């Protein structure tokens, strides 16, 4: 899938992508700077999109790590599967609400998300928060890109420690919420 097709898919499904552009390299680098990839064996990405975050994760993760990428858009999933054919990268065309079915009783060391929680129905959103917390290693991190600082308060029911960062080097400027 070429870049123009990806952009067309982005706009065609704005309610599920929640973005007007893909994440900038600066945003991806800043987001991933909060994650400790050394020794992280199970990594989960929520919202694979065009693969910009996926690419950054793969470049940083250990060779023996496993990456589960959740994406609900079939065209995005097809593109991700072509771009990332590695055996340790699993593109899952399913909702993040079902992450427990794919983790097979294991815990993730990192969960990295660009899901548009503001656009996800409350019941589904709370289920994703709950499963993220319950399937995250005790010392693991949940890191979220978002465009509203208010989203931080939704995580308070699930995570004890919440920090935020901000970057202007994205359109639109974005917040990064770091939870553990």
From TrEMBL:
Residue spans crossing the bilayer: none
Gene Ontology biological process terms from the UniProt entry: methylation
Record-linked Pfam families: Methyltransf_25
Signal peptide segment: none
Domain of life where this protein originates: Bacteria
InterPro entries cross-referenced by the UniProt entry: Methyltransf_25, SAM-dependent_MTases_sf
Entry keywords, A to Z: Methyltransferase, Transferase
Methyltransferase domain: residues covered: 43-140
GO molecular function: methyltransferase activity
Protein name: Methyltransferase domain-containing protein
Species annotation: Echinicola arenosa
